[in-house]
Recover the amino acids of this structure.
């Protein structure tokens, strides 16, 4: 994702691929010890063998310990299924929940704007996409009244069974408050909805006053009946956070309160594709069980991690500041995740010009931007947005100096564009 | 898969994960050069970034060159889609071919015995599985008359559109003759079937007189109209062959004569899950573009490759010889792939005992074998077999001495079992 890799993660993984490097003096002892421990847990002591379908048992145990530390709530390796990126786990859970036969089709509530994996998977599975709109006027907050509206509407033509949440949000960058999460859990409880919590950006929190609250932690803090009844699947990934290791395609889902028969079907479902990539499983282990104070790799690890996260926080602020100086652009604070999703006013003549070309107005803007400046951003229509509003998504990942230039170029282009079409 | 990894493959991949090791003097120059070339082709020069959805362009080019060398027929990078193991590509192609809406359901012809990914994927997609039986009396050969029978039967209740071939076969270990492949292609042409050729065992050919003929090569040698019309998808993987790198989950499909609109849908379909794991893509590149004579890694590479393949050939013969000495066991020659699939006679009292336990007879045998000897083999019923026949599948992967002991133990257990239930 354009960020510098964290040395320890890569060292351990490379050692597991090439154990002859265990003699290499330049690699720290703790990385070597970790590689030996992981190799011993691989089938045939090799990263080249298929693992068990839900993942290497040791890695599942390490994930469980990580979750227990994070939430202060017990976590069991049996409830953790490693996956080929969070994408794979999200699609598997959707498949599992949707595939039930029967009269009416399964409805899945998703936020708008959303990460397009959801709409694509819902379409592939012939389920029904039920949109609930995030509240742009309140920093893209999730409003339970809006959830209720979307559910009621959905009930008229399908059987809504699943509620998807993305927190922190992609593309919208909001971080949900603890109160809001509680409200959503109560709602899911009352309406008997299965909660899918996409928490892949859990380490990417920048705004003062924002904090990451996992759905599982809040659920257990709420106690019975919620903690015993509400079914939850929470997703994580090595693609985001401080590590940004998208290419490894590694993640996991933890299921909570899942019906045991359904969970067994899940185990069967994932076994068809054999197992997640082993190098990614190894890398995931280093993420959930990082070097500790006193370990040879600790200082460098912490320094690298801090550098990545503080640069991201800085770039999140920078983005918001620059955009909000431009009349016609309004950018909510980038509280978390890796994107800004500013709203842009487009003059009527630009709408006409877009129509003439058969393009959505924000697509028209983005194409012009690309043609004239080489800057590539994604039109809001790719994520969904309220009718008549226009946005684009831009990542905060480029190096600070480069990002600053991009933001300024984009802003002047916008101003010029508006003038041209006014 | 229990075989020793090939040094060059692992070195290049590890270097790409940990470029700081490029200074390491113990790693040969050609591996370093290769790693630099591949890293330069990665997004952001990093194995940690998502690649393009169909795979790194350079790797697709290298696969195309490999296919061109193999077949003597042009191959285009645009027709190659890298995947998360062959499994992923097989499921994607099935999804693409089945998903067409319309009146009657899509029928997919698969061999029996089959690799269970096919039946599972067909069930998931709500397509119709149409069985054609391989001819055990003739070394598990594919007989076009049997294909014709299965197709005619299928036409009575669904719309057969796809014909799957596994060559060399899993679990059956046969290698198809060139003539047979020609006959199958003619049949697909006449009946307008899409051919899916699972050729993941193409490097695993052991029997004298057997050779691997790719469907694509035969198709093009047949010339028009076949070469211009018959739609084909061929699958390969790093999991088998001399490399056996299952854990990396890397493979590809090449599509031939695919309708351009359908191919565009395929591109869209694979983009939903972002991309195949990058470490696996890198490893695949080293497989399709191995060290050449004169390269520092060449001698070791060839020696390692030969050692793996000749050991497998030896174990294939050994398996067949030992099993065929046992009255009641009949094992076809293991011409290719990595398994034997011997047929076992089971006495009537064993069938009764199995029935009493609610188990398939060969499952009953395999469970008893496991309990008494610790040897784990898979009952034939997991792959499908002709009614009233019983088999099990055993891999030839364990080291020779260990395999010999396993074969002998299994044989004596079988003899004892038969005596006990007679
Ligand atoms: C909200 C969200 N969920 C899931 C994913 C998929 O992540 P992975 O790379 O782990 O499949 C992404 C990737 O951008 C994302 O933004
Ligand atoms: C015939 C056949 N096809 C496909 C596969 C899947 O291979 P991969 O590991 O590349 O997904 C296997 C694995 O055993 C196989 O035997």
């Amino acid at each position: 994702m354009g960020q510098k890799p964290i040395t320890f993660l890569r060292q351990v993984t490379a050692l597991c691929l090439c154990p002859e490097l265990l003699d290499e003096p330049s690699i720290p002892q703790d990385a070597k010890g970790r590689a030996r421990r992981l190799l011993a847990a691989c089938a045939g002591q090799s990263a080249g063998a298929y693992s068990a379908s839900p993942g290497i048992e040791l890695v599942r145990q390490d994930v469980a310990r990580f979750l227990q530390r994070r939430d202060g709530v017990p976590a069991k390796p049996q409830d953790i299924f490693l996956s080929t990126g969070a994408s794979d786990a999200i699609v598997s859970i959707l498949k599992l929940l949707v595939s039930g036969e029967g009269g009416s089709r399964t409805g899945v509530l998703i936020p708008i704007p959303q990460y397009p994996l959801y709409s694509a998977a819902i379409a592939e599975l012939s389920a029904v996409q039920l949109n609930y709109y995030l509240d742009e006027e309140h920093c893209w907050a999730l409003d339970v009244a809006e959830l209720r509206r979307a559910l009621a509407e959905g009930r008229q033509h399908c059987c809504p069974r699943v509620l998807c949440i993305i927190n922190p949000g992609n593309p919208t960058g909001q971080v949900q408050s603890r109160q809001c999460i509680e409200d959503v859990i109560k709602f899911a409880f009352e309406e008997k909805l299965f909660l899918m919590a996409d928490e892949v950006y859990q380490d990417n929190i920048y705004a003062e006053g924002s904090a990451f609250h996992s759905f599982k932690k809040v659920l257990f803090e709420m106690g019975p009946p919620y903690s015993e009844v509400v079914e939850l699947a929470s997703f994580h990934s090595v693609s985001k956070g401080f590590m940004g290791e998208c290419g490894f395609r590694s993640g996991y889902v933890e299921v909570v309160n899942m019906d045991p028969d359904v969970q067994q079907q899940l185990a069967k479902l994932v076994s068809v594709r054999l197992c997640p990539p082993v190098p990614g499983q190894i890398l995931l282990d280093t993420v959930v069980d990082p070097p500790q104070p006193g370990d040879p790799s600790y200082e460098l690890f912490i320094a690298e991690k801090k550098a990545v996260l503080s640069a991201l926080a800085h770039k999140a602020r920078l983005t918001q500041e620059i955009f909000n100086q431009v009349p016609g652009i309004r950018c909510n604070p980038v509280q978390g995740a890796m994107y800004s999703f500013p709203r842009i006013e487009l003059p009527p003549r630009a709408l006409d010009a877009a129509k003439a070309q058969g393009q959505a107005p924000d697509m028209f803007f983005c194409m012009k931007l690309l043609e004239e400046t080489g800057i590539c951003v994604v039109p809001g229509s790719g994520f969904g947005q309220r009718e008549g509003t226009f946005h684009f998504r831009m990542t905060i990942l480029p190096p600070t100096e480069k990002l600053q230039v991009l933001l300024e170029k984009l802003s002047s282009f916008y101003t010029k564009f508006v003038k041209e079409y006014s």
User: Anything to note?
Assistant: Residues A 85-87, 115, 117, 166, 170, 198, 200, 237, 239, 246, 251; B 274 surround pyridoxal-5'-phosphate (ligand 1) (CB under 6 Å). The mean pLDDT of chain A is 94. The domain at 317-420 of chain A is CATH 3.90.1150.10 (Aspartate Aminotransferase, domain 1).
